[in-house]
Specification:
With about 625 residues, the protein is an all-alpha fold. About 75% of the residues lie in helices and about 0% in strands. The longest helix is centred in the last third of the chain and has 34 residues, at about 590-620.
């Protein structure tokens, strides 16, 4: 029944046979889902596409992962003007669920067609916004600058610059180019943004553009831009306005502290002004410097440098930032067992809320301390010393301290941790020597496992296998062998992982290792490779478990697309753009422009998200 829809309901000729010969679709749907889909087919044949979409969505409630329903939804949405992005998303879900279907090439071609249609629609929308801005006369020049940014946001840099260059005065031209810079930064194109900023003649707008670039370069939360401290410092140096330069440098200092460069952060923070002149409407130089120093104190305290953290905190002039730093110091002092030091720090906190909270932390720690025996306290002190020595790379000192621990469990655990740290530091021989000194075969086995993992991460697969094979306890040996396979697979060496797994003699361990490979392959989107690995698993239970890994990964990948339609593309602008635009007030030019701008921004941003996912999908499909 469903093939009749594909043959008769689609106008584009090549789409009429998109599904013919497809190899990755289920032969049947559950009866209720099939009934709903059949109704959708009838609606589509009568060009009732909204009704068809409703029926296909009903079918998906019963069979949420059925590729045929993704495909049908894509086709139906593609027939409604303005829903190109939604259709592209459904087709993306179909390609994710059916990478081996015979119509993959045709579906990809249709996605290209829909993207071009969407770009055309977006261009017309931006032109309409541009026309609306021109109705304001000179007052609309600022809005025309925003239009330049819209063109850049849509990916049409050439038209964006044409719009900017249409201004005769440097002020409005600078504003338009600043809007372009913002769009380029949003798209992750820092190099392009810098080139645009350097072409701005207006000092005011050039500084503002460089300011935006610099903040993006140190944004540790950005998924589009790799943090670039050196680049940010260079950008900051180009800003002429001292206030803006100081502000961005404070963020550079924070980024340095958060990435572990405490010395660099301190140097940057020391260069900041700390007067109380309010700038940027919401902050002062004092606040900027204090915020940077606070983050430096955080980094120092968490790395164990309590003295350094306290020294930094003492320099913070803003009371709120200072107390926040001291609260973190109290927490770290308690973790280190320095109850007296924590109390002293807490007593110096000036804000009531942080002082109260820090005292609560101390009270809780003291209650826990009362439950610890003197012997346990001595052991814990020795453990902390050994841990500090290990972190400092003093493995000989750490081993000597560990030998003094009376508690057998803590002693064995600490010795194993030291052995692991040695191996990770590259001292494989030293770690093996220490492991050989262990009398307990279980303790020795776990230490050897950690050594083997360090070896495989260093690229010494043969050495790792040899170490794992020498483990006396079978259950640890099998776990080590499986872990070696997992580490290889996670590092991208699937062929090597498979070879290692093939050499495992124990059937259950081998199946577990193969399942680990399947998990990595499926998560990376290599469903065909994962299925091939599943087919080689001999253990029935492991095969079922591995097959579920593939099913779960496919469902997760499908959800990635479906969420876009359910959340990102569920706004009126994506469902019925024409109706949305008609709802804008016709007698208020500025509100009309704002509505057109907002719609263009939403469409442009959504398109970038979808195109990026499609690119990632294509890159994964291209892998051998």
């Amino acid at each position: 029944m469903h093939l009749q829809y594909f043959r008769s309901a689609i106008v584009l000729p090549f789409l009429c046979v998109l599904l013919l010969g497809a190899t990755a679709l289920p032969a049947e749907l559950p009866p209720a889902a099939q009934e709903a889909m059949d109704r959708g087919v009838i609606a589509a044949n009568n060009q009732e596409y909204l009704l068809a979409i409703r029926f296909f969505a009903d079918a998906r409630k019963i069979a949420p992962a059925a590729p045929i329903l993704f495909f049908n939804l894509g086709l139906a949405e593609s027939k409604i003007a303005g829903r190109e992005l939604r259709a592209m998303t459904w087709f993306g879900a179909y390609l994710e669920a059916s990478p081996g279907a015979a119509n993959v090439a045709a579906v990809k071609e249709q996605i290209k067609v829909l993207d071009v249609k969407n770009q055309g629609s977006l261009s017309r929308l931006i032109r309409t916004a541009e026309d609306a801005a021109k109705q304001f006369g000179d007052a609309g020049k600022a809005s025309l600058g925003v239009v330049a940014g819209l063109w850049a946001r849509s990916g049409d840099i050439e038209t964006a610059f044409q719009t900017a260059e249409s201004f005769q005065d440097s002020h409005n031209k600078g504003w338009a180019k600043h809007c372009i810079v913002r769009a380029q930064v949003e798209l992750g194109d820092i190099a392009g943004a810098q080139k645009t900023a350097n072409s701005i003649q207006s000092v005011q707008h050039k500084d503002a553009a460089l300011y935006d670039i610099c903040l993006a370069q140190v944004n540790t939360a950005s998924s589009k831009i790799t943090i670039d401290i050196t680049g940010a410092q260079k950008t900051a140096d180009s800003i002429r306005d001292a206030h803006q330069q100081s502000f961005v440098r404070s963020y550079i200092a924070v980024a340095q502290a958060e990435t572990g460069d405490v010395a660099g952060a301190q140097k940057t923070a020391n260069s900041l002004r700390d007067d109380e002149t309010v700038e940027h409407l919401w902050t002062s130089h004092l606040d900027e410097k204090s915020n940077a120093q606070k983050h430096i104190a955080y980094a120092q305290a968490r790395s164990g440098d309590i003295t350094g953290a306290q020294k930094t905190a003492s320099r913070i002039r803003d009371v709120s930032h200072k107390s926040s730093a001291q609260l973190v110091i109290v927490s770290e002092q308690l973790k280190a067992g320095d109850m007296a030091g924590a109390q002293k720090t807490a007593d110096s906190i000036q804000t009531a809320e942080n002082k109260k909270f820090s005292q609560r932390l101390i009270d809780e720690a003291q209650e826990s301390e009362k439950k610890i025996t003197s012997a346990e306290r001595v052991a814990q002190k020795a453990v902390k010393l050994a841990e500090a020595q290990t972190m400092a790379g003093d493995f000989a000192g750490a081993q000597k301290t560990a030998e003094s621990i009376q508690d057998t469990y803590l002693k064995k655990r600490e010795q194993r941790d030291i052995c692991e740290a040695q191996a990770k530091a590259g001292d494989i021989a030293g770690a093996q020597k220490m492991a050989d000194s262990f009398q307990d075969t279980s303790q020795k086995g776990w230490a050897q496992m950690e050594i083997a993992l360090a070896q495989v991460k260093a690229g010494d697969i043969a050495g790792a296998q040899k170490t794992a094979d020498s483990i006396q306890e079978d259950y640890i040996k099998f776990d080590a062998q499986t872990s070696i396979v997992r580490v290889q697979a996670e590092a991208g060496d699937i062929a090597g992982a498979q070879k290692t797994a093939d050499n495992i003699q124990n059937a259950d361990a081998k199946g577990k290792a193969q399942e680990a490979i399947v998990k990595v392959q499926a998560k990376a989107g290599d469903i065909a490779g994962a299925q091939k690995t599943v087919d080689t698993i001999q253990d029935a239970g492991r095969k079922v478990s591995a097959q579920k890994r593939i099913t779960d990964a496919q469902a997760e990948m499908n959800d990635k697309w479906i969420v876009k339609n359910d959340k990102l593309l569920s706004k009126p602008v994506f469902l019925d753009l024409a109706a949305h635009l008609k709802s804008l007030p016709s007698d208020k030019p500025q509100e009309i422009f704002n509505g057109l701008r907002a719609a263009a921004e939403e469409i442009a941003d959504a398109r970038q998200v979808i195109i990026q996912i499609l690119k990632q999908q294509a890159q994964q499909a291209a892998k051998p």
